[in-house]
């Protein structure tokens, strides 16, 4: 999956970047063929839990010095969470009271749970009263993140009222991150500006609640390591400021999420840049909150073509009034369902295969036949009655009602963003 404008006409050849290994791919193909017979018309996901484990292990091998806290907002599937908790080295990042309860329950039932319950960070700088009550009543989190004086006061009250002394969370300060190479910046909503940092550190000290961590989140769409390395530099300056003023000792640096799903060779360079920019002071632990990096490739979505319409359109590029064949297909899932990120983050979800007559035909096989197999400009629409419910325009083979489209890398910000608009049923979820 690549991020780009949905307006452009996407070539399937260019986007056909399957990372599924051959045997895993064969298993997946058999499963899809079995399930299209079973589901008849209803969209479904196939979730590869081993892929989730592999990606977490890959994160750990790229960044051995960083402890990952998986961001639940990305995809809070219970089996995914259990698979991660059972690894023993992945914590959870939560943003709401319900996510906190879910993370706590998964951790408590995991055989690998640490006895200290230091496995959850609450990174939303604004927490509901119910979330804070959960913490007060003993739902232990490692850290509560703040970025303003008001929230700092609320959180200090919570910590004072915590019933279990050993379960008292640390307080981490979220700072504004560097935004130079980021497509979807976050600083207008969250993050203390440089001039706000010292007053907040001083207030914390007056309240008797030391700030012991610094966090940031570069947002999605970081195109390289610069946003991270420059934000790490900012965070390091906060540690120095706190030390110089004798206010507090910063023990944790939290790099947030936004780790890109890019080619492995580029990832190694990315990891090296991060490693080189980390402070080498003893006693500063580094954590991060990857979401997309861990789950994106684990999900495959299979959606049926429920209608089609042939549209004659003018090829305006030539300006000669020539009409071309342009198909419009209506699918069982759309932008108000699994494809919300088309609208929110301009993500391009290109189908990687079609299922015709119960057989999976990978786009590669159409491309390989070259000119002998016609591809048509095809617009994919979702099932609701809204005209913005459009997935994009691609070059596809001719499709019939009842054929299916296969989308890979559908694990991040898909199921977690689904709405109930038009009462379209959510896809069934199968695991392997
Ligand atoms: C505070 C925070 N941490 C982590 C994440 C996860 O980001 P990603 O899935 O891009 O890694 C998010 C996503 O919005 C976030 O807001």
From TrEMBL:
Listed name of the protein: ornithine decarboxylase
Residues in Orn/DAP/Arg decarboxylase 2 N-terminal domain copies: 50-295
Organism: Porphyridium purpureum (Red alga)
Superkingdom as given in the UniProt entry: Eukaryota
Gene Ontology terms, MF aspect: ornithine decarboxylase activity
Entry EC number(s): 4.1.1.17
Gene Ontology terms: cellular component: cytoplasm
Pathway(s): Amine and polyamine biosynthesis; putrescine biosynthesis via L-ornithine pathway; putrescine from L-ornithine: step 1/1
Modified sites of kind N6-(pyridoxal phosphate)lysine: 73
EC top class, as a word: lyase
Quaternary structure annotation from Swiss-Prot or TrEMBL: Homodimer. Only the dimer is catalytically active, as the active sites are constructed of residues from both monomers.
Active site (UniProt): 385 (proton donor)
The keyword Ion transport is assigned to this record: no
SUPFAM superfamilies xref list: Alanine racemase C-terminal domain-like (SSF50621), PLP-binding barrel (SSF51419)
Lineage: Eukaryota, Rhodophyta, Bangiophyceae, Porphyridiales, Porphyridiaceae
Family of this protein: Belongs to the Orn/Lys/Arg decarboxylase class-II family.
Record's keyword annotation contains Lyase: yes
InterPro entries on file: Ala_racemase/Decarboxylase_C, De-COase2_N, De-COase2_pyr-phos_BS, Orn/DAP/Arg_de-COase, Orn_de-COase, PLP-binding_barrel
GO biological process, one term: putrescine biosynthetic process from arginine, via ornithine
Reactions catalysed according to its record: L-ornithine + H(+) = putrescine + CO2
Alphabetized UniProt keyword annotations: Lyase, Pyridoxal phosphate
Cofactors: pyridoxal 5'-phosphate
């Amino acid at each position: 999956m690549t991020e780009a404008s949905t307006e452009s006409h996407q070539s399937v050849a260019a986007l056909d970047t399957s990372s599924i290994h051959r045997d895993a791919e064969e298993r997946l193909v058999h499963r899809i063929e079995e399930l299209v017979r079973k589901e008849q018309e209803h969209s479904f996901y196939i979730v590869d839990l081993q892929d989730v484990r592999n990606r977490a292990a890959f994160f750990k091998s790229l960044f051995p010095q960083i402890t990952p806290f998986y961001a639940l907002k990305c995809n809070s599937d219970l089996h995914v969470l259990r698979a991660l908790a059972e690894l023993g080295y992945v914590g959870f990042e939560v943003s709401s009271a319900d996510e906190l309860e879910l993370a706590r329950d998964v951790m408590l039932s995991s055989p690998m749970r640490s006895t200290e319950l230091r496995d959850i960070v609450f990174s939303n700088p604004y927490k509901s009263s119910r979330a804070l009550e959960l913490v007060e009543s003993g739902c232990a989190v490692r850290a509560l993140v703040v970025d303003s004086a008001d929230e700092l006061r609320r959180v200090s009250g919570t910590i004072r009222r915590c019933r279990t002394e050993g379960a008292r969370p640390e307080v981490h300060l979220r700072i504004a991150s560097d935004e130079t190479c980021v497509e979807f910046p976050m600083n207008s909503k969250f993050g203390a500006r440089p001039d706000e940092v010292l007053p907040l550190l001083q207030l914390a000290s007056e309240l008797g609640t030391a700030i012991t961590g610094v966090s940031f989140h570069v947002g999605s769409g970081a195109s390289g390591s610069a946003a991270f390395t420059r934000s790490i530099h900012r965070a390091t300056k906060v540690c120095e400021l706190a030390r110089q003023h004798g206010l507090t000792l910063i023990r944790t640096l939290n790099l947030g999420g936004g780790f890109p799903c890019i080619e492995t060779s580029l990832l190694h360079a990315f990891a090296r840049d991060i490693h080189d920019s980390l402070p080498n002071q003893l006693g500063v632990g580094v954590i991060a909150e990857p979401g997309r990096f861990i789950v994106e490739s684990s999900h495959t979505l299979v959606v049926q073509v429920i209608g089609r319409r042939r549209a004659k359109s003018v090829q305006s590029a030539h300006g000669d009034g020539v009409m071309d064949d342009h198909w419009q297909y209506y699918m069982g899932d759309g932008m108000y369902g699994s494809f919300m990120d088309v609208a929110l983050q301009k993500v391009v979800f290109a189908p990687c295969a079609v299922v015709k007559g119960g057989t999976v035909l990978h786009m590669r096989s159409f491309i390989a036949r070259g000119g002998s197999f016609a591809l048509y400009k095809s617009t994919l629409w979702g099932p609701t009655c809204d005209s913005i419910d459009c997935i994009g325009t691609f070059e596809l083979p001719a499709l019939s009602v009842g054929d299916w489209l296969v989308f890979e890398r559908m694990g991040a910000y898909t199921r977690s963003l689904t709405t109930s608009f038009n009462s379209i049923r959510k896809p069934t979820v199968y695991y392997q």
